Every structure is written in C-alpha cells, then in structure tokens.
Input
Amino acid sequence: MDPKYSQQQPYAQPYPSNGGGFNHQPGFSQQPSQIVYPAYDHGAVVPQPGYNYQGAQSQGVHPSQVGIAPQFPSGHQGYQNGPQGNYSISGNGGYDSDGERGIIGESLSAFSDKAVRRGFIRKVYGILSVQLLITCGLISIFVFVKPLRDFAIENESLYWIAFAVTMVCMIAMVCCESVRRKSPTNFVFLGIFTICEGFMMGSLAAHFEADAVLIAAGTCAVVTLALTVFAFQSKYDFTVCGGMLLALLLILLLGGILMAILPNSKWAMIGYGSAGALIFSLYIVYDTQIMMGGKHKYALSPEEYIFAALNLYLDIINLFVYLLMIIGIARSD
Output
C-alpha cells in the first residue's frame, strides 16, 4: 500500500471524484480498504453498502460533508454511529470520543444541538419538575400537619438518618457512571435521594412558621425562574467560572463551621444566609448553561440527564434553605 495512504497521515485519504481520480478530503483516518466510499454517476451518489445516505444522496455530496459518519466493519475502533455516539467537536477540529466523562471540552455539532440537546433539556426539566413537586409536597405535609410537625421537631435523629441516605445516593450517582446512566437504576437512586431530601427539607421547615416557609418558597421560585431565563438569554459564558464558584463555596463552608463554633448575632446569620443565597444563585446560572451546551465552552454529555437534574435540584434546594434562613431569622424576635 502506498505510504501516503497509511494511518500516519489521517487527512490524506482517497475520495472518488467525477474525473476518476482521487481527492484528499479531511475527516477520515482509516485505510481505503476499510471504508466503502460512495460511487458517483454524473454528480449523484450511487448507494453503496456501509453508508447512511440520508441527506447525502439528495445533495450529491460525500456523507461527511452533511454530518453523516461512515459505518465501519464490526469491531472497528472508529467513529460511533452518527450523532448518537458519545463524541463532541473538540478544540482542534477532530472528533473526541469522550462519553466516559460528564464534562466535555466543547458542545456537540449543530446537528446534535438541534436533534439531541433540546430533547436532553426537556428530559432534565421534566425530571427536575417531578423532584420539586415531591419535595414541595413533603414540605407542605410537615408544615401544615401539626402531629407530623411535632414529630419531626421531637425526633431530630431522623433528619440525620435521611441526610446519611442522601449522601450515599449522591456519591453513588456522582462517582459511578453505571448508576447514573443505567435505567432504571438511575431513577431508583434519584427517587430515594429526592424522597430523603424532601424529608430533610420538611423537618427543617417544621422549625419555622408556615408564612415564612411560603415566602421563602415563593421567593425561591421567582429567583430560579428569573435566573433560568437569564442563563438562556445571556451572552456571557458562566461555564468558565467553575473554579471561582468552587472557591466561594469552600469559603461559605468554612464560614458555616466558624459560625457553628463561635457565638454570632442575628445580623451575622442574615449576612451568612445572604452570601449562601448569592452563591447558589450563581450556581443555578452555571449549571443551566452547562446543561445547555451550544455556544458555551463546557457542556454535559446528553447521556448525563440524571447528573444535570441532580445539579439543578441541589442548587434550588440550597437556595431555598438560605432564603428560609434569612426570612425566618429576620422575622424572629
């Protein structure tokens, strides 16, 4: 075989032309014997085995020019099957088969943005809506049913049991790819996590007056909706601010430890709650744009709908907790 067609030169592969010669087209990295190219007959594509010709046949062009990847023989380590494969367009213009990671360097191609990303966003918000409905229902039961409210106040150990279960479920979903991607295991873990988190929020809300809980919930809903619209419409890319947000979150955690140890005043608690609400408001914008992909630098893989819903759910729940802290302490004597 001619050395110029070997795998050492991935962008110098034969491509049939109308004149019977070969043109060098980019995007192919395999030997000619492994790829079945389409034949041309007066500018039209003649169907050959090994290609999906939808979109290419009508245009009389090579399938790679309309976003259709070649189908290789079984066992071949080449492209995945079209846009459904776990690849993304990387910064150097090649394909990055990176389905093993949750965060990828660039967004998917334009075809994937239209056909996959919208479905991914609908799925994430559908799951998130169910989670929030379950959580709001549990909070309402603990706030408005007095016997259950008294039970939650008298048995605070149940709060910490639920906290331990949520941590186990969250670590399993975040660290184990098979848990968060394989159905129905991912929905089972997410359901257990959501119920335990709702129990925790209900136990916490039981210590506050009903009107303070309603004000905090309403404020959280308005702020979340406004930030979501802003994240979708903004020209600013917040996905590059992950390091800064992590640093702010660590500072908030350290401040919480100090406030639990040292004596503090009412205004110090309100200030701490305001800082927490601000940080998780920024996280809502950040995680929303991470989920959107598109023009943003970083994006989640379309297979990470459980991970995306979990991120947004935790952002909203933490925002609610800090708003409830601000309102509850401000209304106290």
Remarks:
- Residues 160 and 268 are 25 Å apart (CA to CA).
- The longest strand covers residues 39-41.
- Residues 1-111 have pLDDT under 50 and may be disordered.
- Residues 1-79 form one domain.
